[in-house]
Amino acid sequence: MNKKLFASTGLLILIIVAFNLVSNEFHARFDLTEDHEYTLSDATTDLLDNLEDPVTIKAYFSQNLPPDIAKTRQDFQEMLIEYANRSDGKVVYEFINPGEKESIEQEANKNGIRTVMINVREKDQMKQQKAFMGALVLLGSDQEVIPFIEPGAAMEYALSTAIKKLSVKEKPVIAFLQGHGEPSLNEMIEAKENLNILYTTQEVKLSDSTDIPANAKTLVIIRPTDSIPTTHFQKIENFISKGGRVMVAINRVDGNFQYASGNAVSTGLEKWLQAKGVEVEDNFVLDTKCGSVTMQQQTSFGMLQQQIQFPYIPVVARFANHPTVKGLESVILQFASSIKYTGDTTRRFIPLAFSSEQSSSAKAPVYFDIQKRWTQNDFPESGLIMAAAVEGKLAGSTRSKMVVIGDGDFPINGSGEQVRKLNPDNVNLLVNGIDWLSDDTGLIELRTKGAVSRPIAQLEDTTKVILKYTNFLLPILLAIGYGIYRAQRNKMKRYQWMSETW
Questions:
Q1: Which residues are registered as beta bridge partners of 280?
Q2: Based on the domain organization, do 465 and 388 belong to the same domain?
Q3: Which of 305, 421, 418 is nearest to 370 (CA)?
Q4: Do 275 and 386 lie in a common domain?
Q5: Which of 102, 121, 108 is closest to 61 using CA atoms?
Q6: Distance between alpha carbon 11 and the CA centroid of its chain, in Å?
Q7: Domain range holding 395?
Q8: pLDDT tens per residue across span 144-165
């Protein structure tokens, strides 16, 4: 009996050891996350399959990090294993702890790895600890830095774009139209920084002797304020007819807080779009999900600043299932207009972003009543389109693509003292749109790939109360129920034994 037990135990141990060796060799795992967070995308696998030269990744991560942050290190390491396996060894990596030596910490700082301060609980006290969580990607004599790998962020996008930036010989050109009141690239610094990872951005000012560059992949038209000449539209038509793509962010209306009024804007761009079957209406979209404005109110104690919800600043949280808006959670628009399709079936119209279930529209001109008490009756509409894509023959016989957004200010940081930091998804909307138009590799799918935060704060109060008491009472009720079941079962057994004995 003992020999048989020992043999079975030994066989079980051998099976476990063999399974671990095979798992370590092939690194197989199942990804059950909603966004397939731990599965390499087709874009990444294509990139790794086409690598010609070896890539070295130096991951600078501190040791003894809190468990929630240490998980980022583990996730990044597992991702690097996937990269190495998929590339047949062309991707090699090493983990370096900058805390071991001062010289290593200096090396990390020199390479552009950002030092971050994290909160660590020690002996019931909270203290701050210096940490490193970044990586350096090397290909030949070139290098690209990932200064900080944020927990829950899109790690695959950061790593794949760094590798692509080093391995691509010539970047596609993205042309930004100028000369009609459009903002310069320096006024869209966040979008420019994101785009320069994969593209070459340049400003283009059209004239009789200047055309859109032949090597430009996409033309971007952001918020023109002056009239655009017919000859310039002809040059845009020629660009599209040769396979060029276009992205348009248009202000069809504009608001003036000083005069508390809003009026229609006309530059000729709206007529050109209408000829393509895309009508950006001269109205203001109003939404119950909106931003706020600061209003000064006179009180007995002086001037008091008060934040007031302003429906003319819709916060978009409803998006289509499309690469341009996939993964976006909220985009803040200011004085946006609705879009409708008036073309035929030869082109494909794709709505991208919508107003909430309680929204409405107001045709320009309008008067802004800041102190108005809004009711549900003021928002009878739902799902107004504020961004859309069009595919098909837009000019000539060549198929092309275009993205239109009914607000021209959403990607602009401004200049001088007016510089503002944008909501992250505002930048993502612009860059994703340009990616969808310009990049055929599929890296756009990775930009917003990561752990999506869905905090309980987003639930209704009633739902939170139900969950709270369910979590508290359910284990107790289960224990009591099981106890009653056991008691009844034992009672039935006693009756059975007594009857048998009798």
A1: 339
A2: no
A3: 305
A4: yes
A5: 108
A6: 50
A7: 173-438
A8: 999 998 877 778 888 998 898 8
